[in-house]
Amino acid sequence: MEGLVGTTVTVAGSGFSSGVSSVSINTVPVSTGTVSSDTQILLQVPNDAISGAITVTGTYGTATSPQAFAVTPDIVTIHPTSGHINQSVAITGSGFTGATAVTLGVLELQYTINGPNLITVTIPASAATGELVVTASGQSSTMHSNTDTFTVD
To answer: According to a count of CB atoms within 10 Å of the terminal CB, is the N or C end of the chain lower?
Structure first.
């Protein structure tokens, strides 16, 4: 199972209508969700979600999903979209908590996770124009705007 921050996820089980006290994805509490039936919960992936098991706690105890939910990183903007060597670049989007790599073309970049929605990188001397990609929990995301490249001047 995988999805972007904000995605609605269906959790199947039983005994939900008797009372659910909490739901989390890898210990991150889910604050937006609905028990839609005794066998189904609809939840929204929170902004700071980290890939991992979904846990439901209720009247009958705690249950954990047998498979991990993978939060897919989503690049919304890069700023600036072009620049020179040693240029600082801000990558905004979602699903960045737990990022394991940021690449420009085939070059792996050093990066700083400033929060679930912001990563910063500095363009190294060996960089060339290429696609900017963030990877977290084995999921990779590219920009979904008109351009998917960062241009090195």
So the answer is: C
Neighbours of 27 (CB within 10 A): 9
Decide if 11 contacts 43 (C-beta within 8 A).
Answer: yes
Q: Left if phi > 0, otherwise alpha if psi is -120 to 50, otherwise beta: which for 127?
A: beta
What residues of the chain score a pLDDT lower than 70?
Answer: 142-148
What are the residue boundaries of the structural domains of the chain, listed by start? 2-70, 74-152
Q: What is the pLDDT of residue 18?
A: 84
Structural class in CATH, domain 74-152: mainly beta
Quickly list DSSP for 30-71.
Answer: P-SEEEEETTEEEEE--TT--SB-EEEEETTEEEE-SSPBEE
Residue 146 has a pLDDT of: 45
Handedness of CA 71, 74, 79, 83 (dihedral sign): positive
Residue 151 — left, alpha, or beta (φ > 0 → left; ψ -120 to 50 → alpha)? Answer: beta
Token pair, residue 57, equals 């706690």
